[in-house]
Design brief:
By secondary structure, the protein is of the alpha/beta class. It is built from ten helices and ten strands. It has a domain of about 220 residues: P-loop containing nucleotide triphosphate hydrolases (Rossmann fold, 3-Layer(aba) Sandwich), CATH 3.40.50.300. The chain is about 30% helix and about 20% strand. The strands form two sheets. A six-stranded mixed beta sheet has the order 6-7-8-3-9-10, sandwiched between helices. A four-stranded antiparallel beta sheet has the order 2-1-4-5, sandwiched between helices. A hairpin with a 2-residue loop joins strand 4 and strand 5. Helix 7 packs parallel to helix 8. The protein is globular. Belongs to the ABC transporter superfamily.
Length: about 325
């Protein structure tokens, strides 16, 4: 890999200093988070490999990447919601609790909903089918807050309004809701506990553009109130709207973390895959990334993006280390 020039060296030192400061102040500090799924016949799926990042109070980190790259698995690992054939390693600290090592009792009683809230990717699976949305919201208010009995109805209605869920649908059952309404109901439930860390896994799925913007803005307000938001999304427009930083995931590995203003601005991302994601947008070059992502059960030893990368060389047969927010042998040089 080419050695960075003087301005590049200054940037790397500055990034290291910011990373150290952020780790000390982090609401969530993830180190070497790895998830493997055991399959029949002794095979394994490398769903997440060596994820490292910190998330501070008041910050939104957008985790982006193609479907199947491991984004939702990472979120599920943080809440202990992986299936029985999953093996995790590394650490994920919040409020002194290692989420990867915590037992189910700790996760259920002191983490989920209280310290860490979740807007799920599949809201229908998280809504109780035989209870109305109102009753589920009021039950969540009772379980997670000190709101008195008489005030719970108003608190539930306020939560629904924050998530743009229409008051006229509160007494409906989940099966009577559209996909977009179910998504908004799940968002309302996640906001109730005022969790210091919120994981939003594709929270704008099924919403039109106006509702996407409204939902994104409400999630941003959650962070602006001094909490932290991990936004997992395919919607780069939503990420650009509210994110402070962007983490790009490819084939189970985070390959770049960059400030959002640089990622979406004239400088752009430094990793070829991240640049390809942006260039595929209709409002940009509308040029798809050639080829397909590799199977997570058969990853190459070197850079997983090399078969699709126009800059790949023999050097890419060796996996690049993740250093100063980047894992690439051929990054674009930082501009002065």
């Amino acid at each position: 890999m080419n050695a960075p020039n003087a301005s590049g060296q200054r940037l790397l030192r500055a990034l290291d200093a910011v990373t150290a400061e952020r780790a000390e102040d982090a609401v969530l500090s993830v180190r070497d988070l790895t998830v493997r799924f055991r399959l029949r016949g002794g095979r394994t799926v490398a769903a997440v490999t060596g994820a490292d990042f910190d998330l501070a109070a008041g910050e939104c980190l957008a985790l982006v990447g193609e479907s199947g790259c491991g984004k939702s698995v990472l979120a599920s690992a943080l809440l202990g919601l992986l299936p029985g054939n999953a093996e995790t390693s590394g650490t994920a600290l919040t409020d002194g609790i290692d989420l990867l090592a915590a037992d189910e009792k700790t996760l259920a009683r002191t983490v989920r909903g209280r310290r860490v809230g979740l807007v799920p990717q599949s809201p229908a699976a998280h809504l109780t089918p035989v209870r109305t949305v109102r009753s589920q919201l009021e039950e969540t208010v009772r379980a997670l807050t000190a709101t008195g009995r008489r005030a719970r109805r108003k608190a539930a209605e306020d939560a629904a309004e924050r998530a743009a869920f229409p008051a006229g649908h509160l007494d409906r059952y989940p099966h009577e809701l559209s996909g977009g309404l179910a998504q908004r109901a799940a968002t309302a439930l996640a906001l109730i506990g005022g969790a210091r860390l919120l994981l939003a896994d594709e929270p704008t799925t099924g919403l039109d553009r106006d509702l996407v913007d409204r939902t994104a803005d409400e999630l941003r307000r959650h962070a602006d109130d001094g909490r932290a938001l991990l936004l997992i999304t395919h919607d780069l427009a939503a990420a650009e709207r509210i994110a402070d930083r962007v983490a790009v995931m490819y084939a189970g590995r985070i390959v770049e973390i960059a400030p959002a203003h640089r990622f979406f601005g004239p400088t752009g991302p430094r990793h070829p895959y991240a640049r390809g994601l942006l260039n595929a947008l209709p409002e940009r070059e509308f040029t798809p990334i050639p080829g397909m992502p590799p199977e997570l059960s058969a990853l190459p030893e070197g850079c997983a993006f090399a078969p699709r990368c126009p800059l790949a060389t023999e050097l890419c047969a060796t996996r690049p280390a993740f250093t100063a927010g980047l894992a690439c042998h051929h990054p674009e040089r930082p501009r002065a």
